Amino acid sequence: MPLELLSAAADAAHLAAALPAEVTWEVRPRMPDWGVGGTQDPDGDPIGRFLNIAQGVVVVIGVIGILYSAAKMAIGKLGRSEVAADGVGGVLWTVMGVSLMLVAVSVVTTLVGS
Description:
It comes from Streptomonospora nanhaiensis. The protein is an all-alpha fold.
């Protein structure tokens, strides 16, 4: 009896797999609609979450860079003027680098459409 039932279930699965199924394809690639149409949870947006994390990392890197440059200027105050000058240059490079990274995040956000 169990063998006959298993055989009948296998035959039913085989017949179901042989039935034609209607499949439609989207011709143009597009980004998923994460929460815009109310179809998905907005907290499930992986691209937006990644960009938010990237902005946070940029801010942390900027704070570390400013503190490093401030430490070099403080050491230079003790009589090593070349280290102080290097610290002032480091502030400029840090501010410009952080600005470029934040602009890059904004550009990616615009391109993705989040």
